[in-house]
Input
Amino acid sequence: MVNVEELHVVLQQSFSPDAAVRQPAEASIRNLKHVPGSVPALLRVASEKQVRFEVRQAAAIQIKNICRECWTPRHPYPYSLAATDGETAGESIETIPGVANQQSSVPQLPVLSDADKAEIKNGLIHALLDEPEKSVRDLFAECLHTMVVHEFPTKWPDLIPTLLNTIREGVPAMDHPQQQQLAGLKVHNALLALRKVCKRYEYKSKDQRGPLNEIVTASFPMLLPLGQRLVQQNSLESAMMLKQILKIFWSSTQFYL
Output
């Protein structure tokens, strides 16, 4: 079990100008991918508003990187391929013909446990919906996209209902001055998350767009009137929400050619 307070200290020490303090902290951070429970602990640090912004951002970067590298089994690239083959960058070695057998001695990267994945999925959505800082929010959103690629829809059936319920409940609250700011933030962030899900299906062929078609059916009747309402409002917050709606419409209408 990772101690959140100790992790917070290590992240702070990674900013120290003293190399004797900074370098051990950096080494500990690089090793986090091998430590069970590290990503849920990082998420608690990143989502805590009382923590220094730089530390929150550093925690969010680690979450994004570990989820990208360790969500599913994969092998590190051999140096020669990584340096010369741009088109296969990011693929697992086992997916590249003729390489898997030659690289059997390459150690396999760690994989997040099912328990950690469940905790991360639940915690990340709540953290993303409540996040006011753009850079941290965008890092959470990129992590969400990684998880959507591997988990949605079969292993994450409640994702879209959660996002749509947030929008549905938040829009009326935006009319009340005392709730307007928080409700607008949640609606915007839910739209951002929904766009990341839709982006997963950009340029997919018709037989691969089943989940997206269901999203369109469930969300467009809500998003169209919301977009029409936002067009009439002269504020930065309204423009940001409208931008996400237009991106959702765009991502949902791009077909494989």
Remarks:
- Residues 75 and 104 are 10 Å apart (CA to CA).
- The chain has a mean pLDDT of 89.
